[in-house]
Amino acid sequence: MKDILIITNYFPPETGAASNRIFHLAEGLQKHNFKVSVITPLPNYPTGKIFEGYKGKFKYSSTKNDITVHRLWIYASNSKNKLLRLIAMLSYSFSLYWFFTWNKIPKTVIIQSPPLLVAFTSVFFLRSKKRKLILNVSDLWPIAGLELGAFKKNFSYKLLEKIEHFNYKHADLILGQSNEIISHVKSLFPKKDTFLYRNFPDFIPPKISKTVTRTGKLKIVYAGLLGIAQGIYKLCQELDYTYIQFHIYGTGVEQDKIQSLISNNPELDIIYHGEVSRDKLHEALMSYDLTIIPLLNRIHGSVPSKIFEYARLGLPMIYFGGGEGEKIIKQYNLGWIAKVGDYNNLNATISRIKPSDLELKNGERIIKTAIEYFDFNKQLDLLVEKI
Q1: 238-295 per-position pLDDT tens digit
Q2: Crossing angle (nearest 10°) for helices 306-313 and 323-331
Q3: Which of 54, 153, 167, 372 could form a disulfide with 42 if both were Cys (CB 3.0 to 4.6 A apart)?
Q4: Do the bridges between strand 244-249 and strand 194-196 make them parallel or antiparallel, or are there none, so unpaired?
Q5: Which domains are assigned to the chain?
Q6: Residue 293 β-bridge partners
């Protein structure tokens, strides 16, 4: 049995795509006869507050299903203040350094990036000819931050670029969740060993109802983080509610603004459901006609994991984010495309969706596509061969 360590910023009981992705990776490796351990902060995402049961602790270790999880201290914050966010990352980096100093580290380590500083700390202190470092790159920072308007091309940005390049240089293998990420890495380090590792889900979906009827308004759902990048608040303002009803699940920094918008504008046909568990969410999603996957701006390297999760559920999608995700929707015929940032085009696209487009057979076709092309276990088998 080979020891492997995963270093990540997100892990259950935290919710969201990043947490689910790393959990399934850990669970999958354990089933492939790896002895898996995980290092992660004390759970705090997305609230920015340490969860009940973990407060007041510097370290909390537990073992479940033969996976050992070490939760380390972090100065938790989800503030928009860049200094506070930096302090949060530095605090976790300090905890990592402390852990590396006093504990034996396996010869194979998977490091999640971003955050860049956390990945840098791990790569810097663990790089060794005797140890294999695998960098799992899910977003291209700092490029994504620049496209989101979080950064400007100044000294700080140049420093983050140097950190990014250092991480790539000293990783033995780089996993990229998109072809754009792989291409970017190869443009910097042409000989670097890379592997396309999509965020495929690993769950048994609920069955599609055989008595689905489509009456009244089109029921569109968004489920996920209510963050700046997703732009759900602006989406709520721009949608044409003549023929649709918009349902929202999730939490994040825009939650209060969205709830206030709904309260002050009862004519907008929006229903906010709050945050629910993943299993309950999957059951709830089956009652909607289709889902929307938006990004406020096109983000280089980004492919929302919702694409693969909703495909597994057989849920048609409206993709409103551009980039590689748009290409996947088109290639596998998973739904409709609206030009990113163009809300008139989005409303026009929605208006053209017919009841016949949402029949049961379409959902069943999407599920078959997901089973054939978005298989978590097949992908993991290929990854294990490289590890």
Answers
A1: 999 998 999 999 988 899 999 999 999 999 999 999 988 888 898 899 889 999 999 8
A2: 20
A3: 54
A4: unpaired
A5: 2-201+375-386 (3.40.50.2000), 218-373 (3.40.50.2000)
A6: 319
